[in-house]
Amino acid sequence: MIGVRGQPRCGGGKTEAGKAAAETATNTAADTAADTASDIAPGTVANTAVDISWTQRRIYWRTYQWDTARAQRRTYRGHSDAHIVGHSDGTSGGSGKRL
């Protein structure tokens, strides 16, 4: 049996039940990936139970989690949240100086 994109199907053992389960899992994963890709616009985060691509996870992490972690570290060093504005690299949005 051939799986996604012509690659040999992995797993499932030699029993008919195992083969059927592996084929079902392969088809389900392919269908889910296709549906997810068509439903989610680039740069957005899925608020669903289906898995999302690694690219989507990376965009979400860099956009939200990283800024949050950086803000927490700066707050811990004595900066208030009110001072944390502008770009995530620590530069301010318009004044040209660090806040």
Q: What structural keywords apply?
A:
99 residues, mainly alpha, 2 domains
Q: What is the terminal separation in angstroms?
A: 60 Å
Overall structural class, as computed from helix and strand content, comes to: mainly alpha
Task: Please tell me the overall pLDDT.
Answer: 59
Number of strands: 0
How do the helices and strands follow one another from N- to C-terminus? HH
Percentage of β-strand residues: under 5%
- How large is the radius of gyration? 22 Å
Counted by DSSP, the helix tally is 2
Runs in which pLDDT lies below 50 for 5 or more consecutive residues are none
Give the helix proportion (percent range): 40-55%
Total discrete domains: 2
Major sheet size, sense and barrel closure: none
CA-based shape: elongated
Biased composition (Low complexity): 18-27
Region (Disordered): 1-27, 76-99
SSE topology:
Blueprint (H helix, E strand, L loop, with lengths): L15 H24 L14 H23 L23
What report would you give on this structure?
It is a single chain. By secondary structure, the chain is mostly helical. The protein folds into 2 domains: 39 residues, no CATH class; 59 residues, no CATH class. It is 47% helix and 0% strand. It contains 2 helices and no strands. The chain is elongated, with a radius of gyration of 22 Å.
